[in-house]
């Protein structure tokens, strides 16, 4: 009888232990399957959300060209269908990548996309759309976090090969490979050291085309430039088989005192840009007044740049500190993407010159946009990509999405 | 003991069940759990490649073309540049046959960057049509009949500024006009600056075109570009301190060269503009680079057109007549040319009918774009093409098209008015070529990783 009871107890104990182990093992498998299912759902959500952002212009549809806060978020260019994005809606997104820039005189705190010295896009937070608002408008606030990255597919990098004569190498690459046999259309703007004290800088433009070789590079030589006397900027557009990319190279003689352009307002008759003295923004040594000459250029259908006249304030003098003439506001009278070119010189010395650029619509200088939360340390991030056009320039849109409701399955 | 053995047997059975279940319940690899949407990526890649119709042009190239291989090689370079390095592709072009053919899709050409597309691939298809098979309309060229004219000048001067073209720039309006009208003219020339405008006013051709009988469209709204030099000095009335005399010179040139001068919106010739000539002058509304001429500009223009001597006259000759209707002629040509602006517009600068008799613009030669309106005991003309016929003559010597509508301009009305005036015929034909459509299939796969 005792032996039977002991046998029963041992059998029961072993049985219960084995059942527990097997329940754990099966549960592990089921949990993993459910987790995979949720991640699969996240990937589908990511693809849907990306399409939702890219195939919808938002409400109102022209919010990118105004100061209006949209009531529905979308980036599609309202004048087109399919995957064409508005360069101006993208311009109004708060950039995750750059450190904010402050202009204390007017209390402006700006989202910052800066591609090296002289290429600025500074948008005040009061005019920009932040991540929190976009997240709410997309209906994912509190449930999903995301980061949207819009990067140009064709990367155009320009480097100097030699100084006399000035020879520049334009290197063109796609997402995977160099772009051989592409047409390079360029515009060279040379700031000339003319005039006496207080005069505005003069500049001349030069246009041309070249082709990239099998390694995707083209060599351009300019005998008209004297590097010791002239500041200059080369803007290059590259096109092949529907792909368009752009890049620029600047040689600046005066980096101590320069002009910083801020987007100031987006009105119905064009945008307003505030030009400020660099010392009031970044500080620095040896501050001095600068004179400037602002020009707006747009890309035409034959890939040449064409000047558009600017109105009041296109030339002027900017001082620093407590002087009354520390900034100027100019109007860009169009919502065609283009480039604001501001040539400047030290008021007292024409040789201390330089040039800065500001894209009007992100595509004109192929600026990238990173919008949303930082995705480092996020668990199981689903990504999806699309090829898009922004003002005819080819970009890749990538959305990274993660769940904010945790990824563990409670078993 | 027996129960313990039974339990072990049960454990053995459950273990077997677990192993068998695990064998069949294979979890997918992470790439399949969270995949890239390759189908969408393929579709958007094809759309980008065809954004300037490059893809359409290449897939319809004839293999006997000397640049056939080079074009395909460029497509492959662009495709490789577009896709991330871990994506492999296969692009195949199929000819689409009609109903009577045995095979609907016939493969024509295929390019790929890998022998295999991996364990999983997705494809998107994109249908392209040949540019040779669209419904074709050949317009008659203005100037074919009569032997003169046929040139369209569009003022696109980079050194001038516009007024009452709110929301547009002269450049965008010029581009739109080019797209709408260039196919109807022998030659269309964009006048890029005021120096070029001076040349055509002097009768000098810019690109070998015929100057006599040309149409000049002023895209600057109520402002008109003024060239520096002769026209600025001779065009300045120092007594009245006005550039109205420039408008008089314009009228003379319109008569001399039998031009058709087109004003697209508002009060014609109300300002003169040249950013270099008037860097500090503005139009009293804060737009720099222009000077106010006022109504004297149009009066002077009409004096010049009619060969009268110049006399400064600042009397208004327009009226606000409110909502106006397209004329029956214009409605007819809307259908003929396929241009459909709104038939009801607001006219605040309708011209007085008194100009017809004062300046020898016979009503029998007027082409009304909008119906004339009776108001305040007078007739007003919101939009019409006026032709000048000198007294005792039967020949047209200069024309003037004024749209006295309020801002913002609808450029289609300008195009419609000119087409109503010149009436070029349209020769329509359907070009039914075979092999009109091709199907492009892009298949993408991922390599590397799991």
Report a brief summary of the structure.
Chain A has 411 residues and is of the alpha+beta class.
The number of E-state strands of chain A comes to 23
Roughly how many Å apart are the termini of chain B? Answer: 50 Å
Percent range of helical residues of chain A: 10-25%
Radius of gyration of chain A: 28 Å
Q: For the largest beta sheet of chain A, what order do the strands appear in spatially?
A: 1-22-23-5-21
The radius of gyration over CA of chain B amounts to 34 Å
The major sheet of chain A is characterized as: 5 strands, mixed
Please report the first level of CATH classification, the CATH class of the largest domain in chain B.
Alpha Beta
**Dominant shape of chain B:** elongated
- Class computed from helices, strands and strand pairing of chain B: alpha+beta
CATH topology of the largest domain in chain B: Rossmann fold
Counting DSSP H or I runs of 4 or more residues, the number of helices of chain B is 13
Oligomer: heterodimer
Strand order, sheet with most strands of chain B: 6-5-7-9-20-19-16
Mean pLDDT of chain B: 87
| Total beta strands of chain B | 22
Strand content of chain B: 15-25%
Biggest interface, and residues per chain?
A-B, 63 and 63 residues
C-alpha termini separation of chain A: 41 Å
